[in-house]
Write a structure and sequence with these properties.
The chain has 279 residues and is mostly helical. Helix content is 77%, strand content 0%. It has helices at 2-26, 32-53, 63-83, 89-96, 99-110, 117-135, 142-165, 171-189, 199-225, 228-231, 237-249, 256-276. It is globular. The two termini are 27 Å apart.
């Protein structure tokens, strides 16, 4: 029963993130900075009241790491939103999921965490998948590929920073730092690129933070309810959802080599999750 509940939580999380990414792609007429700004508002509407209600110290304990996590989050999010202007949404999401490779390398350097030879092999398989996506599909934009790769790099850094913080920081504080910095950064950077939304666009833009918060909340609940090795692979359902949405909603066409490359990425990363929890 507990396992079924965890599966439901993760599927809700995946759907929430998929809807958020779909909206971002749909409102891509807006500058990425403005989208980041609106993405933060909806989430802050949840985190700040909850922090105040539970009397959680809003500034946290390790302010340097919290600021670093927030900065890396803002950069990763902005780069990802920018990449959607150049890449199909399913391709962008799948390439961003190479972040565990960067996280493992950064953890090896800064946290001295060991990586087994078989894990390197699985990372290599995932990397080969990226090469297939770019090397055999000439429609993949190089600028978009660079943006989403850098986004994955900073997302990997986020994982390492959170691991370094451990359980010393409340998750709400971590999210709040990220969203507060996104609010300031996105707001300032969008001043010269501001586009006035119409009524429907206001709703869509403000909903980004709501779906983002829901995705984060239920993902956390899922990991708290069941072992990582059983739940983490379900997160990659988002790639499948986004490919389906991209093809049906946005009319995106995915070549055989792109789908094959994405399959290699998923194979290498999903199996690594199973393996890592058995080592």
């Amino acid at each position: 029963m507990k396992y079924n509940k965890a599966i439901v939580y993760m599927i809700i999380s995946v759907i929430a993130f998929a809807i958020m990414n779909t909206i971002v792609k749909y409102v891509s007429v807006f500058n990425a900075y403005q989208i980041v700004f609106f993405r933060s508002i909806g989430t802050l509407a949840f985190t700040i009241p909850l922090i105040l209600k539970n009397r959680i110290p809003i500034l946290g304990n390790n302010k340097k790491l919290l600021l670093l996590r927030g900065l890396a989050g803002v950069i990763s999010l902005t780069l990802f939103f920018q990449s959607l202007n150049y890449l199909d949404v399913g391709t962008a999401v799948s390439l961003r999921y190479t972040s565990p490779i960067f996280a493992a390398i950064l953890a090896l350097v800064f946290l001295k965490e060991k990586i087994k030879p078989v894990q390197w092999l699985l990372f290599l398989i995932a990397f080969v998948g990226v090469l297939f996506v770019k090397g055999f599909d000439t429609s993949i934009n190089s600028v978009g590929l660079l943006l989403v790769t850098l986004s994955a790099l900073f997302l990997g850094l986020i994982f390492v920073v959170i691991r370094k913080m451990g359980t010393k920081e409340n998750p709400l504080v971590i999210i709040n730092y990220f969203m507060a910095m996104a609010f300031v950064f996105g707001g300032v950077m969008s001043i010269n690129h501001w586009r006035n939304p119409n009524a429907v666009e206001w709703i869509l833009l403000l909903s980004l933070g709501i779906f983002g918060y829901a995705g984060q909340l239920y993902m956390t609940k899922a990991f708290q309810s069941q072992a990582t090795s059983l739940i983490a692979p379900l997160k990659y359902l988002e790639v499948i959802f986004m490919i389906i949405i991209g093809a049906t909603w946005f009319g995106e066409i995915y070549s055989f080599w792109t789908l094959f490359g994405i399959s290699l990425i998923l194979l290498g990363l999903v199996y690594n999750v199973f393996l890592k929890n058995k080592l």
